[in-house]
Amino acid sequence: MIKIIRIEESIFQENEKIADQVRNILRGNNILGINVMGAPGSGKTSFIERTIDVLKDEFKFGVIEGDVEGKVDSEKFLKFNISVIQINTGGGCHLDANMVKKAVSEIDLEQIEILFIENVGNLICPAEFDIGTEKNIVISSITEGDDKIEKYPLIFKVSDLCILNKIDLVPYLDFDFGKFENDLKNISSGSKLIKLSSKTGENFNIWIEYLKGLKREKK
């Protein structure tokens, strides 16, 4: 008799269990946890940077930075004098709940109201792992093309909000906004779309008001 062990099922079940623990820790401390996902170069770090810069006098922030190696992105947040934890996966293409739980244990939670967790740059693996956040955000940029939802549907399906970044580059690129919007509606009718530029600040106020609304819901 041969017994088959479903490794993937076991991994996902354990991850879900730990993700719930992380979620309970954050909720217990009235912290809004946000998982920021997207491809390398989509502008995840600059998006978080600008958000903190705009709201640094209104909310207390913390950042968990996920990368395969290095600390280039996490160093960008030191200027804000906030808690920053770097997670290097050593080759892993995503963060999982256990990694996040360990990082959360290293942060002074009393000094945080909004916790950004920047996932490893990837449009596939991060979508499959719940890391215990209240909200999932996927950032796509027009430099990536208008077909990303069609090619990588799951990450857009599991996200509460899609940020279409780098719209300041519209004059220089051939991007079909209609296709992108329709693809998003077809894959996730409940996901909101905000088109903005983290570089110039165009439409960034729409995201800021959305974030303030999320924090108000937590109170």
Which features does this protein show?
219 residues, alpha/beta, Rossmann fold, seven-stranded parallel sheet
Descriptive account of the structure:
The model has no long low-confidence stretch (mean pLDDT 94). The chain has a single domain, classed as P-loop containing nucleotide triphosphate hydrolases (Rossmann fold, 3-Layer(aba) Sandwich), CATH 3.40.50. Strands 3-2-4-1-5-6-7 form a seven-stranded parallel beta sheet, sandwiched between helices. It has helices at residues 7-28, 44-55, 72-75, 97-104, 148-151, 153-157, 177-187, 204-218; strands at 32-38, 61-67, 83-88, 114-118, 135-141, 161-165, 192-195. The protein is 37% helix and 19% strand. By secondary structure, the chain is of the alpha/beta class.
**Structural class by sheet pairing and helices:** alpha/beta
Kindly state the percentage of residues in helix.
25-40%
CATH superfamily name? P-loop containing nucleotide triphosphate hydrolases
Strands of the widest sheet, in order across it, are 3-2-4-1-5-6-7
CATH architecture: 3-Layer(aba) Sandwich
Would you list the SSEs in sequence order as H and E?
A: HEHEHEHEEHHEHEH
| DSSP, total strands | 7
> β content, as a range?
15-25%
CATH class: Alpha Beta
| Mean of all residue-level pLDDT scores | 94
**Number of contiguous helices:** 8
Tell me about the largest β-sheet: 7 strands, parallel
Tell me the radius of gyration.
Answer: 17 Å
In terms of per-residue confidence, which ranges show pLDDT below 50 for 5 or more consecutive residues? none
Shape: globular
Question: Which fold name corresponds to the CATH topology?
Answer: Rossmann fold
- Number of domain modules: 1
* Head-to-tail CA distance between termini: 56 Å
